[in-house]
Write a structure and sequence with these properties.
With 371 residues, the chain is of the alpha/beta class. The chain is 44% helix and 11% strand. The structure holds NADPH dihydro-nicotinamide-adenine-dinucleotide phosphate.
Amino acid sequence: MAETDLFLAEYGSRALESQRMEKQTGRIAPRLDSIRKALPVEMEYRHLGRSGLEVSALSFGSWVTFDNQLDVGKAEECMALAYEHGVNFFDNAEAYAAGESERIMGQALKKLNWSRDSYCVSSKVFWGGKKPTQRRLHRKHVFDACHAALQRLQVDYLDLYFCHRPDPRTPIEETVRAMHHLIQQGKVMYWGTSEWSAVQIMEAHAVAGVHHLTPPTMEQPQYNMLTRDRVEAEYRHVYRSVGLGTTIWSPLASGILTNKYAEGIPSGSRLDLEGFEWLRDRFTDEEGKRKIEKTRKVAAIAAELGTTSAKLAIAWCLKNPNVSTVILGASRTSQLEENLGALEVLPMLTDEVMENLEAALDNKPADEMEF
Ligand code: NDP
């Protein structure tokens, strides 16, 4: 019997026994947190779409944090912690801290000296600089950005390479061909998209099919309790038809789903950072206030389950079978340690708990939603 099953069997029977005892004696039985804490949380590995590659269900990314909040030493600590917990995918992009994030990850990887075949690292191309040659998805920038990322990350190849946004000004065939050639050259293992519409992803597949090129394997969309339509509704047919994998971003909606913004903006938090006023504005208007209200309700459900909002929100993402990996973000090791514990919450997400969460969120995408 798997460790999780053993836990559930023990948890279930002990819970029933506790309820019986409580009824008979009127005394509250001790919580079962001790059993839960004692269990090691085993990492789960999921196929990246239809590919043979298995990525850890929880991965670690560097947006906002690397350079802004984490120097090389702290980045290295976080990456080591993640790797020790079974994380095998580290996400990055040329745009993050204008290349500095990749430089920091490269230096950390060098110091950590892990075997190159034991982890995956990504980059994304779109925003490389201000000049027309330095941005978007034309062949020149796709190639230049890949070579620059390899240098900054100090690796010979990228495992995953994403088109960070769609580029309506470059024919999709040009981008698909450029990605195919990087793969043929051994500089990229798998290529994918980020925030492309279902139609754009299907077009890339159609072009690849006609010209015998490598199609995109995965998409990197935002997905969390507050942003659901694309992953749950728009891509519904794409999973079935081409077996799209997803490496989802902002599982905590930039930290909102931890419920730490319920009473205002804590100093030093992401919404308090200089340069992120645009993000703060999204959560302080009327719509934003409604979202904060939902995080309060989620927090109450988490408390009932004896867990934290962060772990519950991440486990909720993991519950979706179309999610290949949830990319975690953390500005300190204690956050990452907590978030890596989300896997232990997954078995607690029964139909009843999911229904309670659905009622709290009140944002389930409609079946007939059109895009
Ligand atoms: P989250 O939504 O999980 O936000 C992470 C932030 O929330 C942390 O940096 C921290 O911010 C706060 N936080 C995290 N855990 C806790 C905790 N347990 N308690 C309190 N606060 C916590 O993820 P990100 O938005 O960082 O996205 C994750 C990754 O996804 C990125 O690193 C990147 O790799 C990728 N991404 C991709 C995008 C794309 O367009 N393809 C866009 C955005 C992200 P703080 O402490 O500063 O408040």
